Structures are given as structure tokens and as C-alpha cells.
Amino acid sequence: MDIRNIAIIAHVDHGKTTLVDQLLKQSGSVRENQQMAERAMDSNDQERERGITILAKCTSVEWNGVRINTVDTPGHADFGGEVERILSMVDGVVLLVDAAESVMPQTKFVLSKALKLGLKPIVVINKIDRHDAQPEETLESIFDLFLSLEANDDQLDFHVLYASGRNGWAVDSLEDERKDLTPLFKRIVEDVPAPKPQALASEDQPFKMLVTTLEADNFLGRILTGRIESGVITTGRNIKVLSRTGEVIEKARITKLLAFRGLARVPVDRAEAGDIVAIAGLTTATVADTLCDPSVEEAIPAHPIDPPTLSMTLAVNDSPLAGREGDKVQSRVIRERLLREAEGNVALKVAETGEGAFEVSGRGELQLGVLIESMRREGFELSISRPRVVMKTEDGQRLEPIEEVTVDVDDDYTGTVIEKISLRKGEMTDMRPTGAGKTRIVFHAPARGLIGYHGEFLTDTRGTGVMNRMFLDYAPHKGPIGGRVNGVLISTEDGEAVAYGLWYLEERGKLFVTPGTKVYLGMIIGQHAKDNDLDVNPTKAKQLTNIRTTSKDEAVRLTPIVPMTLEQAMAYIQDDELVEVTPQNIRLRKRELVPHLRKRAKQAAE
Q1: Rounded Cα–Cα distance for residues 162 and 156 (Å)
Q2: Is the pLDDT of residue 533 over 50?
Q3: Which of 190, 300, 469, 592 is most buried, by CB atoms within 10 Å?
Q4: Higher pLDDT residue, 432 or 29?
Q5: What is the chain's percent helix, strand, coil content, to nearest 5?
Q6: What residues contact 1, with CB distance under 8 A and at least 6 apart?
Q7: What 8-state DSSP symbol labels residue 128?
């Protein structure tokens, strides 16, 4: 069958997954009476809860006798590693751009990667039916972006479609009838080249395939997905695995060959060069390895991906409440889980630092937060350090990662945002009105200065601002940056927090716990109103006597609290503090007890 391999790339929330839903429906890959969830490709629990794509996933649709293998990619900068490796197995990309938001940081990132690989994008200006859509201005900014990324003449001659992914239509011109996605299907078939010459898909050619994604299945074991570069593969055939350097890692027999058909993966007996398939039956092969015929000697070169910019320490939970809520608490189990994750996620690096602690490096707070959230749902207990940036040293000079920050805010809040980011050593590079009383500001700021800023940004802009970040480059160290201004309230007792005790602490600052919450010595139970830490007793109960007073007992009414999310807790803590993560709770605590608290704990033990 005639095949086309494409990836849909865009900034976060520009409509990739919604467009894939419509492609599946209109191609007939999903029956009219078949139940299909909205954003069907976002099958992961966290993807549905957060409303973003985290893992790149393959699907396949048939249109007029052509099979279009489609890869839905993440749009968030933290998951850029997924996009980078996926682009190596497709022959074309559909670049989606929101007609109102226009070009955004991740649009620039994914397009630069596609252009470097020589791919020619089909540009789709999406959400054209929005009331604030600006299709002409958006097209102009897209063309400027192509020029700034040094696209060649062929890439600059891109075709443009206007679409509404949610309503399922695309048109070549804004005046055309808005009916269905036929113009997009036609453009994909005409513009995207077929994978390989037919000669490579013959039995005479040796089988070769580069692995681009890895996942585990309870029944099939390790499943490796990639595009067949040459030859033919059949079920039951013996193959070997080559590492990037050409060393033989293992020899195995293919137990299952799976092809993508609509939303399902179906077993097939045979697949040819150019098709994207999943293979089961291997035990040690991983991402960037080459699966090939036993006669092949050279591995397929894998494109390098950008290095991690943020790291944090994950360790065994050693708090007084450890082991009460999770069943996976040993360092051995944590180590196995982290190494398994790093195997399939090429943008993640794991290093052992000793004494049950591991340094995990990734692209950003969200990527690390998603990993930790997945682990706590699986029953793990962990203690986590504050995220820190990965520094580099070149020619004796210390370099730190710089990020491009694009901020969309109401005009009233521009002064506050500029002041706050300037304090974090950010430099403004662009500022322009975007209409409807909003302004877009672009900064170049150190990544370490932005840790924990997002929550403060939302507060400053009354929840109306939108901030996007993208790794830009390494630059000389910018000097010290001020951290959290407020101190914390530290519990001096073990037990349960009592409403009476908390009521008297409310005037001291903002509380993180509610009555009945288990607390322990050294646990952080709130934020102090001043800049120093304060020792408090949240377990203090009211003294009960048989003496009545003329005044009525005061009713205890506490201010309701909003529990911290995992990302907020990671961003809030300082270097001498930790986040304790269990399947049921997220707690903050001091890394080590201050001397007088240690003395008190020793006396209590005696």
C-alpha cells in the first residue's frame, strides 16, 4: 500500500490531538457508532487530567487507498525530547499554529528541529473560527519564523491551510466552503514524499529499523516502535540488535509484529520498508538501537537530542511517617523504576549519588513532576530536593542555561511582570501589543531564576497571564538571585494538628495543614509572615476545666486552605528543605533538624 508518514507538531494547546480525532473520524478509521473519547490519543491518566499531551503516540488512517501513519506529539517544552526523536521516523510534518496566539516558543523549537532534518512542513493555521483570530498576521509571523530559522528555498515554498480542528474542516483559502478535512488529506498525500523507493522494500534488502519509542506491556513485555528503513520483516524471524556504536547487544526472535490501524495496534505477519510498526520479543534493546538482519554490520545513526537543563535529587523517604502509605519504599525498587524510565525517555538522565539517593535530570519542572506523580500513583514514597539547573564549564568559565520566556498579559500588569522578571536577572528583548488590551513581552532569563516563579506570576496577573518557556542557550553565570522572602512555620511536636492550636497560629502566617493532619518534629506546616523560620506547636489543645466564664467559648473558625500541588511544592522549598511524597500526601520538611529541635527530640526519646 502507498504510505505517508507524518508528525503533527505545534505549541501546547494549539489543537494537535483534537485534529487527530477528526482525522480518525473522517477517514473512516473509527466507525460512526463507535464510542470514542474526546482527545482519544491522550490515553494516559495524567494527560487527561492536565489537558496536555505527554507521550508521542502513533495512529494510522486510510484515505483513498493511501495509509497515513500519523504521530501526535507533545507541545510542552519540557517534553521536547519526545518530539526530537519522533521526527527521525517521519517524512513530513504538519505545523499547527493558533490563529489568535500566533507563533509561540515551542512553535519555534519544533519547527527548527524539523527544518534541520530537511523536512518540508505543511502549515495549518488552526482555530480560525475564534473571535480574535488574525490569520493574515499569523501567516506573516510564520514566514518570518521560517526566515529566522534559515529555511531553504524549498521549505520556504510551504503550502498553507486554514482550519478548525474542533469543527473538522480545512480550506485552502478563507473564501472556500468550510466542509471537511479533504484539503488537508490531499495536501498530505501530494506534499509528503513516500518513505522509500520501492526497491528498498524487497525481500533482497536486509531488514533495518531504528527504535524511536519504547514501552512496557504486561503481556508482551518490551514493545519497540520505529520505522522500517529497508527490507521486510515477518513474525518469528531471528534478528539482532546493534547499539549506536555498532556493538551487538542481543539476538532474539520476533514474537509479535504490530501495526497501527486507527486507534488500535493489530497483529500482522509481514511489514515492509517505510511502514511504522511495533515489535515485541526483545529483552534489552532500547531507544536509538538498531534492529536488523543478522548480516547487517553498521547501525543506523541516531540524531543527538538536546541535553537536560534541570536536575533534582530523589531519595528514600526517611521521615517519621515513612512506610505508612506506600508499599514501594526501598532504594532498590526506586532505582529499578528510575532506570526503567530513563531507558524509554531519552530526555531524562539518572545517576546514583549513593546512600539511596539518585540525581534525575530533565528538561523542566513539569517533566520531573509528571515522573514523580506517576511514581506516587504506583505506590512509591520519596523525598525530593529543590530543583537546580545543570551548569556547564567551558574554557574555565561557568555557564548556565538561559530560557526564552514569552509572556501574554493584560496591559495593567506589564509593569509588575517586567519588574519581577528583572529581579530574577531576566532581560526584556521584545514588547508589543497583541490587541484586546493585551501585551506580549519576550525575556531572556536564567532558568534558575524562573524556578517557582509561575505561581507568583499567576498571582500578580490575577490568573489572566500566560507564560511559556523554552531553552535558548548557555550563557555566562548571571550572579546571585534572591530566593523566597518568607520563612516557614516548623512543627516542634509529633501527633495530629488541632484546630485550637492552628487557630492561634493563623496570625503568624499562612497555614499548609488542616485539623487532623499528622505532623512531626521538623515538618513545615505553614509560611511565616516574616523572613525568619518560627518553631510552633500545632498539636496544642485547649485546657479543659470545670470553671465557667461569663463570656461564651469562642468558636474556632479557620481560613480554608488550598493544598499545594506537587509542582508548587517542588518550586516552594529552599535548599535546606525537602518534599515528602507518598501516594496520599505531599508534605514539606526541613532536611535536617536545627540544633535546638534535635536536642528536644533527644530529650523526648530519653
Answers
A1: 18
A2: yes
A3: 469
A4: 432
A5: 25, 35, 40
A6: 65, 66, 67
A7: T
Dist. CA 164–CA 320, nearest whole Å: 54
* Angle ∠(7,12,13) on CA atoms, nearest 5: 100
The position carrying cell 490519543 is 41
Q: Which residues contact 125 (CB under 8 A, 6 or more apart)?
A: 97, 99, 135, 138, 139, 142, 160, 161, 162, 163
Q: Is residue 369 part of a domain?
A: no
Going by C-beta distance under 8 Å and a sequence separation of 6 or more, which residues neighbour residue 485?
Answer: 531
Assign residue 198 a region: left if phi > 0, alpha if psi is -120 to 50, beta otherwise?
alpha
Query: What does the block give as the cell for 347?
Result: 530526555
pLDDT tens digits for 433-484?
887 788 999 999 998 888 878 878 888 888 888 888 888 888 998 888 877 7
Among 250, 274, 292, residue at a domain's last position: 292
pTM over 0.90: no
How far apart are alpha carbons 491 and 601 in whole angstroms? 12
User: What pLDDT does 550 receive?
Assistant: 47
Query: How far apart, in whole angstroms, are the C-alpha atoms of residue 427 and residue 518?
Result: 44
- E strand or H helix that includes residue 291: strand 290-292
Within-domain flag for 317: no
Among residues of the chain, what percentage have pLDDT more than 70?
A: 93
Q: Name the residue among 424, 384, 382 with its Cα closest to residue 407.
A: 424
Exposure string for 268-307, b = 16+ CB within 10 A, e = fewer = beebbbbbbbbbbbbeebbbbbbbbbeebeebbebeebee
Residue 405 lies in a domain: yes
